[in-house]
């Protein structure tokens, strides 16, 4: 996400959101998807597209657990999710719409076996399966048709990583919008509130907007703009959430982590029967 730094008007800042990949967190992802973003979907080139996705608890984990979906199904799930919740309905009706952009990044290219040509062939086969699978889908036009094969071990020397950074930078530069100065003042007040509070009531936000010279009729456009940047969260079409504006999205993430937390199971406790003890 791209936004302007109020203290340095000639500089740009980029907000990076790292979504939890575990299926347990899937229900929360839609809250943070916006159209004003570039999405990177990562997968391991070491694993086949039609193999069950693998999940490692940590580098020290002695075992590996798998997802219920294959790697290609997981990638397509993310694409459908982005298309459904991050792309406005009007844009969905325009089949040639390409915003937001989705780049699929293959990691661990340095772990592939064989010669340089063998590795290139394996990468092309993986992406070939992917591009064939999404052919004819409504989200196909949003997917960047490049094979971003990244080396994790030699990241500083990876030319494709530099290409990816340049491409993402180019996508972001195409997104800026000209906004009224009063929107910036309004944004600063909401962000200041977010330092001490999770949210503001919609009624209070309306009052702040009026003081900033923003009419109630135009307020929704301002809120949608800030929502797309990830600065606030507001859901006008949700019956329960439309009465509040989340001014601190990060704090909301921490709350969700408290409610939904995936931890490494204690195998020893399970074997000893402790996990079956009643409270």
Order of helices and strands: EEHEEEHHEHEHHEHHEHH
- Helix/strand/pairing category: alpha/beta
What is the number of beta strands? 9
Give the overall average pLDDT: 80
Helix content: 40-55%
The tally of structural domains comes to 2
Strand order of the largest sheet: 3-6-7
The radius of gyration computed from the alpha-carbon positions, rounded to a whole number of angstroms, is 22 Å
Query: What about the largest sheet?
Result: 3 strands, parallel
Taken from the alpha-carbon principal axes, the silhouette is: elongated
Distance between the termini: 45 Å
Unreliable segments of 5+ consecutive residues: 1-8, 269-279
Count of helix runs: 10
Residue share in β-strands: 5-15%
Topology:
Layout: E1 2-4, E2 12-14, H1 26-29, E3 39-44, E4 52-55, E5 65-70, H2 71-86, H3 89-93, E6 102-107, H4 116-133, E7 148-149, H5 159-173, H6 181-194, E8 199-201, H7 202-211, H8 216-229, E9 244-246, H9 249-259, H10 267-272
Parallel strand pairs: 3-6, 6-7
Antiparallel strand pairs: 1-2, 4-5, 8-9
Question: Nutshell version of this structure?
Answer:
The chain has helices spanning 26-29, 71-86, 89-93, 116-133, 159-173, 181-194, 202-211, 216-229, 249-259, 267-272, and strands at residues 2-4, 12-14, 39-44, 52-55, 65-70, 102-107, 148-149, 199-201, 244-246. It has 2 domains: 2-173, no CATH class; 181-259, Orthogonal Bundle (Arc Repressor Mutant, subunit A).
């Amino acid at each position: 996400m791209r936004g302007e730094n109020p203290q340095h008007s000639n500089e740009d800042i980029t907000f990076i959101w790292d979504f939890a990949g575990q299926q347990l967190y899937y229900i929360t992802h839609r809250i943070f998807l916006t159209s004003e973003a570039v999405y990177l979907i990562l997968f391991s080139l070491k694993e086949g597209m039609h193999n069950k996705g693998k999940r490692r608890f940590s580098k020290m984990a002695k075992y590996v657990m798998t997802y219920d979906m294959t790697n290609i199904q997981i990638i397509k799930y993310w694409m459908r999710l982005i298309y459904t919740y991050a792309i406005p309905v009007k844009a969905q009706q325009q089949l040639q719409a390409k915003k937001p952009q989705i780049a699929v990044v293959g990691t661990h290219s340095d772990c592939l076996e064989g010669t340089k040509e063998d590795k290139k062939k394996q990468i092309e086969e993986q992406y070939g399966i992917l591009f064939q699978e999404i052919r004819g889908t409504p989200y196909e036009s949003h997917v960047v048709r490049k094979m971003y094969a990244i080396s994790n071990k030699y990241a500083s020397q990876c030319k494709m990583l530099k290409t990816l950074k340049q491409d993402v930078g180019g996508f972001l530069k195409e997104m800026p919008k000209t906004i009224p100065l009063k929107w910036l003042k309004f944004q600063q007040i909401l962000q200041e509130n977010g330092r001490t509070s999770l949210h503001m009531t919609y009624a209070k936000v309306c009052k702040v907007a009026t003081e900033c010279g923003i009419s109630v009729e135009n307020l929704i456009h301002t809120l949608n703009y800030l929502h797309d940047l990830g600065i606030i969260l507001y859901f006008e079409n949700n019956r329960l959430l439309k009465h509040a504006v989340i001014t601190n999205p990060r704090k909301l993430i921490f709350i969700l982590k408290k409610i939904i937390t995936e931890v490494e199971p204690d195998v020893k406790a399970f074997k000893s029967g402790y996990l079956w003890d009643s409270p």
